[in-house]
Design brief:
This protein has 378 residues and is of the alpha+beta class. Helices cover 61% and strands 7% of the residues. A hairpin with a 5-residue loop joins strand 3 and strand 4. The chain is elongated.
Length: 378
């Protein structure tokens, strides 16, 4: 843990760094591939909509020795429809049959009790109408749209529109992947799934906003210096918050993984699995998009501005001139200032320019303003 803490401190100070933004085309390619896979899975397999959305009956039995396969056979013979059977942690079974009414439900319940050697009153039967699922779906879509509009407005005001656009793309990326995973693994979509999808929106934005806040702070007055391009400052922002993002994501994923793999596996399927899968996939996708999608997108959008294009040209020209003279070219992870960088009139000697993280040392050969309060040469 101490090594991780030291690494985090070195990343924050800019002493070491990983070129996330410079390799953004690789991350874009990976994200596009994953997104296409999710969309294809959604188009081919579709979503396994739960009884809440299709309507039908749900039968819950007490502990029984009847297997899942046998119970599924009994339910299909009794109803004439496809049935979905899940084993509960108590040893009972949850049997779902779509497209049945009240009269048919009573008959199915009686037939199941007879086939499974149970008392009819021991089987709990619940009827669900499809209109309820439609209402929930409409409310979920409304909530999603309102949430995204508010997020875009807030980020555009607190930061800028480029960051708002990048965050919106990252959100769509996370939701698409999560829904695609549901289609590929065949998990049932229930009201728990909807709750999970709405919940991950906030988690997805958390790390993104942290990086954006660091980037906003470090890029102040960026055009007044010639040491860093906007992409390099964006990369430093990711590195300075990297360990924090990893820690918060792991801490959030551990209890959700417990719900998904332990709770769902040993306590039985149902809403526990539905909500935990959406949370698990959404948290992982959100952490990925914050680092590899949102911030690189902001750098791409920002460097289309004339001012940032000019800054990049000045930085590269300065480095090329230094290389031609045989001088060492300052790399992105190097925090030392070159000797020909003059401070601004209102900037004290040895101060760190805005937008730069890391220690800055003033060359000892410069005796500028020695013994003079004003710090100006005669």
């Amino acid at each position: 843990m101490s090594k991780l803490g030291n690494l985090g401190a070195r990343l924050y100070r800019g002493e070491v760094g990983y070129d996330f933004v410079g390799k953004r085309k690789i991350w874009y390619g990976i994200s596009i591939l994953i997104t296409i896979t999710a969309i294809v899975g959604l188009a081919v397999r579709g979503l396994n909509m739960g009884i809440e959305f299709e309507g039908g009956a749900v039968f819950t039995t007490p502990k029984t020795s009847v297997s899942v396969a046998q119970a599924e056979k009994y339910a299909e013979e009794a109803s004439g429809h496809d049935a979905l059977v899940q084993e509960l942690g108590s040893g009972g079974l949850r049997i779902q049959v779509a497209g049945v009414d009240t009269a048919k439900s009573d008959q199915i319940k009686a037939d199941l009790a007879k086939d499974m050697d149970l008392k009819p009153e021991s089987i709990n039967a619940d009827l669900v109408g499809p209109s309820w699922g439609e209402q929930i779906s409409q409310k979920a879509w409304q909530g999603l749209i309102i949430f995204m509009v508010l997020v875009v407005i807030y980020l555009a005001i607190a930061f800028e529109w480029r960051m708002a656009l990048a965050a919106l793309i990252a959100l769509i990326h996370d939701i698409t992947i999560t829904v695609g995973v549901y289609a590929l693994v065949g998990f049932e979509v229930t009201q728990g799934t909807i709750i999970g999808l709405l919940t991950i929106l906030g988690y997805s934005l958390y790390d993104t906003v942290v990086v954006f806040d660091s980037l906003k702070e470090q890029s102040k007055d960026l055009t007044k210096q010639t040491r860093w391009t906007y992409s390099e400052v964006a990369n430093r922002s990711i590195n300075s918050t990297l360990v924090r993002s990893i820690n918060t994501t792991v801490v959030a994923l551990l209890p959700v993984a417990g719900l998904l793999f332990i709770g769902g596996g040993f306590l039985g399927a149902g809403m526990l699995n539905d909500i935990s899968l959406s949370l698990f996939v959404g948290l992982a996708a959100g952490a990925y998009s914050s680092i590899f999608i949102a911030t690189p997108l902001v750098a791409d959008l920002k460097e289309t501005e004339p001012a940032m294009k000019a800054l990049k040209k000045r930085v590269l020209a300065k480095r090329a001139a230094a290389a031609a003279k045989g001088e060492s070219v300052e790399s992105e992870s190097d925090a030392r200032i070159e000797e020909d960088d003059e401070p601004q009139d209102d900037e004290p000697a040895g101060a760190t320019p805005a937008g730069v993280v890391g220690p800055r040392t003033q060359p000892a050969s410069r005796g500028r303003g020695r013994g003079r309060p004003s710090g100006k040469r005669r």
